[in-house]
Specification:
6-stranded antiparallel beta sheet, 24% helix
Length: 639
């Protein structure tokens, strides 16, 4: 019975039993899970009535150890610990049926072992029913996570739910389950779908688990035979190893792995390039026993599969032992070179997707190790760079990335790719969008695209020309084309002519004729020839400068008036070759003051009648100015 899977929502009646199960059986190898347990009020016996809820977790990936009725509509639920390890209690997956329509209940998960988790950040349980098979998150206003003094001050997850259909079977889970049977069904489908004459991948059994389940190995090797050279050429075939589902509760990692595998086997141009140039070794489920039993983290004997790489044996950890032998064989080969070992995981405390890496004493290796996470961050919009860590922690010495970077060649880049069970932040950095199955698939596709970008970055693959990057998309033949003239006109190429500057229109432009200025005012203006009968500053600009230097405004109103009359000296103020001075209030005050002075002290200014030369635009490189021209500039300002 341990190898048979059954959909938990297939139960249509609370009295339905499997033929080979007795009345006292716990179903499909429940390992301590509740099996069709009906919760009755105290002192009530006999046939269950509608509204007396029936709990069931005796199915694949199920986890619920006990249920108690503590009120008219409130239930305390206890999670089953991992097999042979009572430390881990976080994953839950159970069904509820025999409910009344519009029946409201409160479920309290009272023995969660991990206090620091995403429930503090707004994560809510998932729910679906037999008539609505799509997973949905419960509203945040109906979910509460708190310390309860009634439960020995432990953290309790409470949520309120209302059953709207009597005949439905409702399923609650921490994350979308991805079972061992689902993986086997998916691998059989893609294996039967591929062309027998041109297979894109080969499936083999790497080893057997403790409960005799398959540890599958997917190999994608389309590298041509002429590229398989010997050791003398130093041209190894590059191998990428993907590991997944070391922890039983990391179902989002399985969805990510499936998205990665589907993209590699597709007809996409990137997938074709990757298949033709690299070899992929994918282990989609490292811990099949823990997944099937509904454990949170461990395998059958209570061992954390991502902490025993340095001590794994053939008898206690056959899955890890077989993977280590495969890696050593490829690493010692004369034809192959391992470039990446990426372990896919799901994180229960942080949002987004991110990468854990290693640190090295060799600076060049460490810099090379930082390239791939940087490229992946550019391809994944949900990447959380703040959660990225690179360390050599001794506590993690038994994990896959630490073992591979220490025991394999220096060319190996070992990472742990984490994706959140909750969601990811949007661009504003505050709003959290919950992940769906499609979001996990998309992360796997982004991982595949990053491999192509990485190998182009290190010049292993050629970078395509701009014309080859994007081909022109034509309208499909199914659409009716527009009516066009049958006469075709040939477009002749433009003749090559000498370059000439086009005239510039100066309509409504206020261009100053000042030939000098400080660098704080925007730099120097273009220099022009000095008009006859005038100083270095041409025309009325000089007249105005003298007036402003000899008269000091007493109030700030003159300054504002000065700013308002600045546009009078634009091109639109030039009339018949003369400046209109009568309407300038600032010059009117100066002229009145000049008339009151004595004839000897009265200053005469000759107003030029010549129109200033046509303004032009030019760029002056200050680095090309000679020392003499700079002196001439400074002397002109002093004058």
């Amino acid at each position: 019975m341990l190898g048979v899977a059954k959909d938990p929502l297939e139960h249509t009646s609370m009295y339905e039993r499997m033929e080979e199960d007795s009345e006292g059986s716990d179903g499909e190898g429940g390992m301590g899970n509740v099996s069709r347990v009906i919760i009755r009020p105290a002192g009530v016996s006999g046939k269950a009535k509608r509204g007396q809820i029936c709990f069931d977790a005796a199915f694949e990936t199920g986890n619920l150890g006990k249920a108690n009725l503590i009120g008219d509509f409130e239930y305390d639920l206890f999670l089953r610990p991992d097999t042979c390890n009572p430390r881990y209690r976080f994953w839950f997956n159970f069904t509820v049926d025999n409910v009344k329509q519009d029946q409201k209940v409160i479920f309290n998960l009272v023995n969660i072992s991990k206090s620091r988790n995403l429930f503090n950040a707004g994560l809510t349980p998932l729910v679906k029913s037999s008539s609505r098979p799509k997973w949905q998150r419960l509203p945040k206003k109906h979910v509460f996570y708190y310390r309860s003094p009634h439960h020995q001050n432990h953290y309790v997850l409470s949520f309120v739910f209302c059953f709207d259909k009597e005949d439905d079977v409702y399923q609650f889970a921490l994350a979308p389950p991805y079972s061992y049977s689902r993986l086997q069904s998916y691998l059989n489908v893609i294996e039967n779908r591929q062309n027998q004459h041109e297979k894109k991948f080969t499936k083999s059994v790497l080893t057997k688990s403790l409960q005799n389940r398959n540890v599958d190995l997917i190999t994608i090797d389309h590298v041509t035979g002429k590229k398989k050279t010997n050791l003398i050429d130093r041209s190894f075939i590059r191998v990428i190893v993907i590991l997944c589902r070391s922890h039983a509760n990391a179902s989002p990692a399985s969805f990510m792995c499936q998205g990665f595998l589907e993209f590699l086997l597709s007809s996409h141009n990137i997938a074709k390039i990757l298949r033709e140039n690299f070899v992929f070794k994918i282990v989609p489920m490292v811990n099949p026993d823990g997944v099937f039993l509904g454990n949170n983290r461990c395998n059958l004997i209570g061992q954390d599969m991502n902490r025993v790489w340095q001590v794994a044996t053939e008898f206690s950890h056959p899955e890890i032992y077989a993977i280590k032998n495969m890696l050593r064989e490829i690493d010692n080969s004369d034809s192959y070179q391992i470039d990446f070992v990426i372990d896919l995981h799901a994180h229960t405390s942080l949002h987004g997707c991110f990468i854990y890496g290693n640190t090295y004493e060799d600076v060049y290796r460490y810099e090379r190790h930082l390239v791939f996470p940087r490229l992946f961050a550019g391809n994944a919009p949900d990447y959380a760079a703040n959660n990225m860590i690179f360390n050599a922690d001794e506590k993690k010495s038994g994990c896959a990335r630490r073992y591979c970077c220490e025991r394999l060649s220096d060319t190996v880049n070992a990472y742990t790719l984490e994706i959140s069970m909750g969601g990811h932040y949007l661009k504003d950095g505050k709003t959290v969008a919950p992940y769906t199955e499609e979001g996990y698939y998309r992360c796997g596709r982004n991982l595949a695209r990053t491999f192509l970008q990485y190998y182009r970055f290190i010049n292993v693959l050629p970078v395509p020309l701009p014309t080859e990057v994007r081909q022109k998309k034509r309208r499909p033949r199914t659409h009716q084309s527009r009516s066009r003239s049958k006469t075709r006109y040939e477009v002749k190429p433009r003749p090559k002519t000498t370059r000439c500057y086009a005239p510039i229109s100066y309509t409504n432009l206020s261009i100053c004729y000042d030939s000098g200025g400080s660098s704080d005012e925007g730099g120097f203006s273009p220099t022009r020839a000095v008009a006859p009968g005038s100083s270095h500053f041409s025309g009325y600009r000089n007249y105005r400068r003298v007036a402003s230097s000899t008269t000091v405004p007493s109030t700030s109103s003159h300054h504002n008036q000065h700013q308002q009359t600045h546009d009078q000296f634009a091109l639109l103020r030039i009339k018949s070759g003369r400046f209109d001075l009568a309407h300038d209030p600032l010059m009117h005050d100066y002229c009145v003051k000049a008339k009151t002075q004595s004839p000897e002290k009265q200053t005469r200014f000759e107003v030029p009648v010549n129109v200033p030369p046509k303004p032009y635009l030019s760029i002056i490189d200050l680095n090309q100015l000679t020392r003499g021209s700079l002196k001439m500039k400074s002397s002109s300002f002093e004058d």
